[in-house]
């Protein structure tokens, strides 16, 4: 049985990746900063909480990571742990930089010391590329990186650390440059979760107005459960490399809002208001990627349309709300 260690297992991607790997027959070990009931809700919702082994660990402690590697002898290591909110990174730049950079360096150094045979997945981000001129879009793997937020800076640094360990120490480390990928397990501070849950509350008469920032931005939106398959595929090819995982299409946040409200037979113009406090100091106008390399080299194909994504997210949210109600009754 193959063994996989996942950092950030209690987050959106960690939960869906765990489910995917368990279905592949893996033993899944999850590293988390703290084990408490609120953090475990995603794993519980996917009905896999009792199938994974959870351990508390500090990724700032190199010796701690070394001991974990020596104990579990993993075949694969998926590093998904990060402060992953762009907005929050402007409020907490130092903490974001510290956590997202040092944790990656410690993990890769521990693997260099313990066993170079461990394959590593590093979670990079499309935010690294910053404001790319429209005329050269879509983004490809070899584009110049010019981050526009503390979060993006931290992910760019972690990305290049991974490349360096791959080239200098021959560690099998592949980076997934994932564009926006959403699910019902997104934290409440993420805008897609805020829109879906807010619209449903308005429909139920539990919320009067939904406050948003800049809804003119355009992003490449995908469905998270389909994206975790690409992570696994990156570690199951002959050579490590970096891959863009995206839909190849850009849609505005306003379009996301409009389609969500229309699905619920609501007019978003009556309920959505702009809150200047939610505007970011620097924001990307439009960004979308070219997933051709992942399609040709990994055999990863994304088929869900934008309309299907909206429908799935709303249906999943209703299912999640029903699950929480039954659990609390």
From TrEMBL:
Reaction equation(s) it catalyzes: GDP-alpha-D-mannose = GDP-4-dehydro-alpha-D-rhamnose + H2O
Gene Ontology molecular function terms on file: GDP-mannose 4,6-dehydratase activity
Entry keyword set: Lyase
Cofactor(s) this protein requires: NADP(+)
Domain of life: Bacteria
NAD(P)-binding domain residues: 5-312
BP terms from Gene Ontology: 'de novo' GDP-L-fucose biosynthetic process
SUPFAM superfamilies linked: NAD(P)-binding Rossmann-fold domains (SSF51735)
The enzyme's E.C. designation: 4.2.1.47
Top enzyme category: lyase
InterPro entries: GDP_Man_deHydtase, NAD(P)-bd_dom, NAD(P)-bd_dom_sf
A Pfam match: GDP_Man_Dehyd
Family to which this protein belongs: Belongs to the NAD(P)-dependent epimerase/dehydratase family. GDP-mannose 4,6-dehydratase subfamily.
Record function comment: Catalyzes the conversion of GDP-D-mannose to GDP-4-dehydro-6-deoxy-D-mannose.
Protein name as annotated: GDP-mannose 4,6-dehydratase
Source organism: Ignavibacterium album (strain DSM 19864 / JCM 16511 / NBRC 101810 / Mat9-16)
